[in-house]
Prior knowledge:
The complex is a heterotetramer, with 2 copies of chain A (about 325 residues) and 2 copies of chain C (about 325 residues).
Chain A: H1 3-7, H2 12-37, H3 52-59, E1 67-71, H4 75-81, H5 85-93, E2 116-120, H6 126-139, E3 146-151, H7 158-169, E4 174-180, E5 183-184, E6 187-188, H8 189-192, H9 198-203, E7 209-213, H10 217-235, E8 238-243, H11 261-268, H12 272-282, H13 290-311
Parallel strand pairs in A: 1-2, 1-3, 3-4, 4-8, 7-8
Antiparallel strand pairs in A: 5-6
Chain C: E1 2-5, H1 6-20, E2 24-28, H2 44-48, E3 53-55, H3 60-72, E4 76-83, H4 84-87, H5 91-98, H6 101-104, E5 114-119, H7 134-137, E6 144-146, H8 151-163, E7 168-173, E8 180-183, E9 196-199, E10 204-208, H9 213-225, E11 230-234, E12 237-239, H10 243-253, E13 256-263, H11 268-280, E14 289-293, H12 302-308, H13 312-322
Parallel strand pairs in C: 2-3, 2-4, 4-5, 5-7, 6-7, 10-11, 10-13, 13-14
Antiparallel strand pairs in C: 1-8, 6-12, 9-11
Helix pairs in contact in C: 1-8, 3-5, 9-13, 10-11
The complex binds thiamine diphosphate (2 copies) and magnesium ion (MG) (2 copies).
One magnesium ion (MG) binds near residues 151 and 183 of chain B.
Amino acid sequence: MSGAGAKVHLTREHGLALLAQMLRIRRFEERCAELYTQEKIRGFLHLYIGEEAVATGVMETLAPEDRIVATYREHGHALARGISMNAVMAEMYGKAAGCSRGRGGSMHLFDRETNFYGGNAIVGGGLPMAAGLALADRMRDRAALTCCFFGEGAAAEGEFHESMNLAALWKLPVLFVCENNLYAMGTRLDLSEAETDIAAKARSYAMPAEAVDGMDVVAVEAAARRLGAEIREGGGPRFLECRTYRFRAHSMFDPQLYRTKEEVEAWTERDPIARLRAWLEEVRYLHAGDLDRIEAEIADEVEAAVAFAEAAEWEPVENLMTDVGAEART
Amino acid sequence: MSGAGAKVHLTREHGLALLAQMLRIRRFEERCAELYTQEKIRGFLHLYIGEEAVATGVMETLAPEDRIVATYREHGHALARGISMNAVMAEMYGKAAGCSRGRGGSMHLFDRETNFYGGNAIVGGGLPMAAGLALADRMRDRAALTCCFFGEGAAAEGEFHESMNLAALWKLPVLFVCENNLYAMGTRLDLSEAETDIAAKARSYAMPAEAVDGMDVVAVEAAARRLGAEIREGGGPRFLECRTYRFRAHSMFDPQLYRTKEEVEAWTERDPIARLRAWLEEVRYLHAGDLDRIEAEIADEVEAAVAFAEAAEWEPVENLMTDVGAEART
Amino acid sequence: MSVTTYREAVRAAIREAMQRDERVFLMGEDVGHYGGCYAVSKGLLEEFGPERIRDTPLSESAFTGAGIAAAMAGMRPIVEVMTVNFSLLALDQIMNTAATIRHMSGGQFQCPVVIRMATGAGRQLAAQHSHSLEGWYAHIPGIRVLAPATLEDARGMLWTALEDPDPVLIFENALLYNMEGELADDAGAVDIDRAAIRREGRDITLITYGGSLGKTLTAAEELEKDGISAEVIDLRTLRPLDEGTILASVSRTRRAVIVDEGWRTGSLAAEVSARIMEGAFWELDAPVGRVCSAEVPIPYAQHLEAAAIPQVPSIVAAARAAMGR
Amino acid sequence: MSVTTYREAVRAAIREAMQRDERVFLMGEDVGHYGGCYAVSKGLLEEFGPERIRDTPLSESAFTGAGIAAAMAGMRPIVEVMTVNFSLLALDQIMNTAATIRHMSGGQFQCPVVIRMATGAGRQLAAQHSHSLEGWYAHIPGIRVLAPATLEDARGMLWTALEDPDPVLIFENALLYNMEGELADDAGAVDIDRAAIRREGRDITLITYGGSLGKTLTAAEELEKDGISAEVIDLRTLRPLDEGTILASVSRTRRAVIVDEGWRTGSLAAEVSARIMEGAFWELDAPVGRVCSAEVPIPYAQHLEAAAIPQVPSIVAAARAAMGR
Ligand SMILES: Cc1ncc(C[n+]2csc(CCOP(=O)(O)OP(=O)(O)O)c2C)c(N)n1
Ligand SMILES: Cc1ncc(C[n+]2csc(CCOP(=O)(O)OP(=O)(O)O)c2C)c(N)n1
Ligand SMILES: [Mg+2]
Ligand SMILES: [Mg+2]
């Protein structure tokens, strides 16, 4: 891999795992897109295709006790974090076996087991949450960090500003990961920000920040690991900007009037999966049959998830009011 | 005067005018504090005492067509902008002759005549307003700037962040003037901001910014004039941080537990009025009798304003619902 | 008459306003290059340019506040907050500035801004994207709140709102954008003061607005089959309420049910019920009923969402109950 | 029994909670070094230190959101939003996160946060500092809304709220902080489910909460002189409403007036009126009345402000009207 990646000593095993994880996310989402046209999945569906290196690389560096806050574009994060594909797919269907019991859908995947705090659909709304989770951990002397994913569009929100300052001021253990895919829906970064260098913004809160090639999973992982270590040593929050690109439409309703085919094609050339694969071939980590095996395993997993979701039960409508408040007060 | 001030060629006339303006604000507010204990003035009363150089210096540089947005600590701005002391005092009393017809009180002085847009009591709430006024002027090709005053505490608000970016992105003619008096109520700057250099914050929006000694009225005026000229030339927004100090309590209810007497005394030594006066004496601009004359004129004006406010009518209670909406639609 | 959609009617209204008055401009997230989240403003950037079809950053408070102030300084902005769900981020500017500025300044400043937003549930967008808060907004003095439910109103309310010297919030139920129908070729401005009787009836008054009008009319048809003649009132303007039309109708029919997609407690339906209590109590033959949303964050799953919001059967049932059947 | 004030009662409640449970901490603007905007938390910084009495920047959305999340992660934060007027800036976090998270996550996460704020008019603070929005907040499913109106409730509601596994908003009317009275030395936790009958009566039920309780009790005394025996209900918990207590009382007295400092349209009073309509219509001898705030941004001048909000004479007049006198 390029740049930072080159310096990392990647084992064959780890390289293949990264490839498999990214492919797993890709194939899952491709299937979701189909299911959306079949109206099995409804509501909004925001695909992560093209950006898989970010969630994959960062998630590799997190411990089980760490907490994750993500956005409505979070299928990749949920899968990479280890929520089962069955539970995620069932949630997309709105079934009771879904990871949010069918209440959340694509935009609101939650999982207590893996400390996965959503699936937040208000742009910027997850940032105060990350600060608060980290605050609790700090006050409870719990050795964990909170990793907060958000898009570059969120950087314009007041909640970004307030949360960055709070985290830096209180030296909270948060890893802010900005997935800079250049567009917020159809608004290009330079049409929404006077200062387009996102990492520089973070530094204006006296928060150490770096930018990394978000199409290079190895570079992402290396940077996240380094920053995470600094956080774990008590250094306070860190900021990682991942420069990436969304290959698909913003959601399923987007005619993409705001960008050219050429631009999309140029970025597609940098597909993080193709890139890692090429490198693995180059260094002869990818053996004959490896890819087919991986693809087959993933295809099985995806089809099993679809079958699981299809077969799963609907929440009885009588349970509409369940979980508005606690059943009994503790 | 010191620093920047020394380089300005100040006429005697101008020097005396600055002194008189600052004294006028000081004496007005001292009288208000008395009237507050007499319960003639009610609600919240936020005194500007100690910070007069900021409003006085900046306001000198503004044209009649310029617009002003201020905070709840805006008596000085209102007077320096030219709202009559009678109208301001009557507003403090809540009389119908007040500059907001008795609806606003101390925190909400308004005046259409002088383009004075309040008196805004939500911290940070005036910043989007400034952006919008400036946007209108730009779209209407009106050669004017909007001058927006706010405290350093407001810099932590999301509305600050969003407005700074909007103004810089759209190159709006706004002069942002941050009155950095080191405290937001009882919260010292370093307890609320990870990055305590306010001007540096502004620069993170790609907005040119400077900091100036806010106790030096000549330096404030010079800086505001220079930045104002850049704005008028179409350079987009500018940011001026004025380092100043509030000599009195935050409001009339504040026991000032959060700062030491010594600190207050040290700053009082830098009183902008005493300082200008000393300099005017040094350069022999202040002649024998000048100060007495100025003080006497101001005393007359203040007492006339009190008499005016005392004699003024109350708004009939039947008019309670006036101005909730327009009488007749246009 | 031509066939058009609600979306096109709103777009035509914006276009006409932009053409008629150069002080008018549209500002909001993705109104320009994207073409509008609901494609309402599609094509307008090309026609009017980026100064007047102004994409904003994701900064709801600042751009809404800027629109409010631009109106104070002589412009006639149409601020589009993509959906009501995000408008909470701009609420300070709406309640503390737009709604207060005229009064607080003793009448010196006014704020003729129009703020549009999409509202409503029904598209499986779950808890954070399904709010119906237009009735809640109607609590705030100093603003006018509109809920166009028909093509005529989608086409005609905007211009009248822009001529209003005070802030006007327009809530467009997102499920209506695809609604198709006939619209007069010369359709233009409509009043924004009065409720409209969309269907005359003798036995009961069904009072509704916005996204629930269609369901309520369907329910009225069902009731007709049962021999119950239902009058249907479309409130149109949620603030100030046209109490006269409501009370006159209820005084005639002596029974009423209010249909409101807002959560039940503290709904606009509660206010309408209270007004009827105060103004027509002696005329009532039965307690006024309410069909509102269940008090739950709207769930994603289709069957749960459908169960959470007013539907034709629940309206019919409530009307029958009010008839004592 | 000792003499104390509402302020001291709130402070004692916070102190006790901090002592009893180390997961509890207080966070907000000026709660520490300043001693609290209303001096509620005075002295607590010295006692508990800056980690647990945590001054925040002027960042309502972030620190409220952080408190919400800290509760999700096992702490028991008391977030103080200085006044309800500024809470609009935090409303997104309250409505879209705190109120939804349990449901939206299918019951996996819960948010036992307590958010306190001062509310109310009456101190000549004008349009931006005089909101009474506690009734408006009661619209939101997923949260509990409390309005302590007595020393006992000021002292006792907090602990119960902290034990509640869901978000609780506590609104303290700022005019009450100086209220003095006797409080049992062992005063402690109180229920946060039921309304309280603060005065028994036969002829009419006056329903109120928070800052208006005192005025309503005074009005009841006045009415007594007229031979009208008024029952006074203090709602205490604005969400969920204790409908049972309301309906039982009104069914007995057959008349009711609701006193509510919120603006009239869309007030909590409207909801209570609608509930009575639905639950006790056949028991009513007269329409339920409302005494609310005038629909105006609260003006500064004392006489105008006083005219804008409920006062004893207006309560008495409404009660007399309901009695047909
Ligand atoms: C507060 C808020 N405003 C607007 C929206 C509508 N919206 C959803 S996603 C989106 C774009 C966000 O862009 P970015 O943060 O860059 O994330 P990306 O979608 O590119 O991953 C917008 C405007 C929203 N969900 N929340
Ligand atoms: C949004 C908001 N939060 C809190 C307050 C209460 N408050 C009024 S003034 C103030 C301090 C503001 O400090 P700063 O901006 O530095 O201005 P200064 O008072 O020092 O001039 C606070 C917290 C408010 N008015 N608005
Ligand atoms: Mg993006
Ligand atoms: Mg300050």
